[in-house]
Design the sequence.
């Protein structure tokens, strides 16, 4: 079994690393630079989008952070991070809600794009305020996004909440802050963050 993570410590690759630490897998890390190696032909053969992260598991490539989280949960069942039968609806609903409407709405907000009423009917998320209100309702419903226990969906949804508040993409509501606090105290989160922070320090 081989696992290779292509990443940059200042990227969404931090999500993939956190998930790898959660499942306890042994993996190789290849750090790419935005302007050179990430655009190089060798990496485009891995991910034609020239984006990180990408994960290669026994010769199979997985990209997109939500996909990486759900894939690793299923590939390493002993970690017990995949959805159980009674969790599946919330697990998949909010995992893909974060990957779709939340990612799009916060990305547009960061770029200063504010859809008007007609455009809101066309785009997948409607309005930013509606997306955030619904996300808050989901986070408030249970201690974790799919119920009473931590799952792979929390790695992705939690990353959106943690980073969203850190960078100002999400309002700092108490519900989001409480959820983020539960996640950022996990030893696996702290270990993954320390690994990436160390790489940033070396590059500085």
Sequence:
């Amino acid at each position: 079994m081989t696992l290779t993570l292509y990443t940059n410590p200042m990227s969404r690759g931090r999500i993939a690393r956190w998930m790898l630490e959660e499942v306890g897998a042994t993996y190789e890390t290849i750090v790419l630079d935005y302007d050179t190696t990430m655009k190089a032909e060798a990496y485009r053969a891995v991910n034609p989008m020239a984006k990180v992260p990408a994960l290669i598991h026994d010769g199979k490539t997985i990209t997109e952070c939500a996909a990486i989280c759900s894939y690793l949960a299923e590939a390493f069942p002993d970690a017990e991070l995949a959805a159980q039968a009674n969790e599946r609806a919330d697990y998949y609903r909010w995992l893909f809600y974060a990957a779709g409407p939340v990612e799009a709405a916060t990305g547009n907000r960061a770029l200063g794009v504010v859809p008007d009423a007609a455009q809101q009917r066309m785009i997948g998320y409607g309005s930013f305020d509606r997306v955030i209100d619904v996300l808050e309702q989901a986070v408030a419903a249970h201690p974790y996004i799919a119920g009473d226990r931590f799952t792979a969906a929390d790695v992705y949804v939690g990353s959106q909440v943690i980073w969203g508040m850190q960078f100002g993409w999400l309002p700092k509501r108490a519900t989001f802050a409480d959820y983020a606090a539960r996640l950022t105290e996990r030893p696996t989160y702290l270990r993954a963050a320390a690994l990436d922070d160390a790489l940033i320090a070396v590059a500085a």
Summary: The chain has a mean pLDDT of 96. The two ends are 33 Å apart (CA to CA).
